[in-house]
Hints:
This protein is an all-beta fold. It has strands at 2-7, 10-13, 18-26, 31-39, 46-52, 58-60, 68-73, 78-83, 92-100, 105-107, 111-116. Strands 2, 4, 5, 6, 9, 10 and 11 form a 7-stranded mixed sheet that branches. A 4-stranded antiparallel sheet has the order 1-3-8-7, with no helix packed on it.
Amino acid sequence: QVQLVESGGGLVQSGGSLRLSCTASGRTFSTRNMGWYRQAPGKEREFVALISWSDGNTDYADSVKGRFTVSRVIAKNTEYLQMNSLKPEDTGIYYCSLRTTWGNTYWGQGTQVTVSS
């Protein structure tokens, strides 16, 4: 089993920045990638960013490219999401994900990000 704990959410004004963290524990030796998803009120959960655990390759949703940066520190089993130039439409609950080489996906409990206009 894998446990994921997120932190770093909060309230920020439009144009501001936040950094989210997600630390994995448990059977993390089979991590394939870690990612971030978000869910706005009344909407479905959507992909935000992904990072390959082995080589650090990244992928982003078009809506956050150039503003968000995903990174990881392998020794800490932690990934980060640096969010700059935040917009009100970035508001939502942000979830950390971890996918294993076996195909299992684990989720964090979510952290609220609110961007005021």
